[in-house]
Write a structure and sequence with these properties.
With 126 residues, the chain is α+β, with helices and mostly antiparallel strands. It has a single domain (8-107), classed as RNA polymerase II/Efflux pump adaptor protein, barrel-sandwich hybrid domain (OB fold (Dihydrolipoamide Acetyltransferase, E2P), Beta Barrel). Helix content is 18%, strand content 35%. The protein has four helices and nine strands; from the N terminus they run βββαβββββααβα. The chain has helices spanning 29-35, 82-85, 89-92, 117-124, and strands at 8-9, 14-19, 22-27, 38-42, 49-50, 55-61, 65-69, 74-79, 101-105. The protein has a six-stranded antiparallel beta sheet. A three-stranded antiparallel beta sheet has the order 4-6-7, with no helix packed on it. Strand 2 (14-19) and strand 3 (22-27) form a beta hairpin. The longest helix has 8 residues, at 117-124.
Length: 126
């Protein structure tokens, strides 16, 4: 399993890349492997401000549907439109082309409370 050191992680298996007050969010390599083949990513919250830990969308795999939880409060400013036609990018490149949303954070300091790669790895027992 791959857990890039420069990213932050949540207990709900999202990853966060912070650049200034913009956070790029996706699901971890562990999460996509647990879900299996992803067939649909449903995020209809672009333009909305979502609070920390609220659901901002869902990921549908062959066997299950999982909620996506917002790791930091903020306005969703962009959805990865490539996922409309290629949801499998979440499986093949979860930290690159499989990113899900970009968020303008309300409070960038919230990112400081997210897990490091090592803490996330410990949490999932990897």
């Amino acid at each position: 399993m791959n857990f890039p050191q420069e990213l932050k992680y949540t207990k709900d298996h999202e990853w966060v890349s912070v650049q200034g007050d913009i956070a790029t969010i996706g699901i971890t390599d562990f999460a996509q492997s647990e879900l299996g083949d992803i067939v649909y990513v449903d995020i209809e919250t672009v333009g909305e401000t979502i609070e920390h830990e609220q659901v901002f969308g869902t990921v549908e795999a062959v066997k299950t549907v999982s909620d996506l939880f917002m790791p930091v409060s903020g306005e969703i400013i962009e959805f990865n439109k490539a996922l409309d036609t290629q949801p499998e990018l979440v499986n093949t490149d979860p930290y690159g082309q499989g990113w899900m949303v970009k968020v303008k954070m309300s409070d960038p300091a919230q990112a400081n409370s997210l897990l490091s790669a090592d803490a996330y790895r410990s949490q999932i027992g990897a």
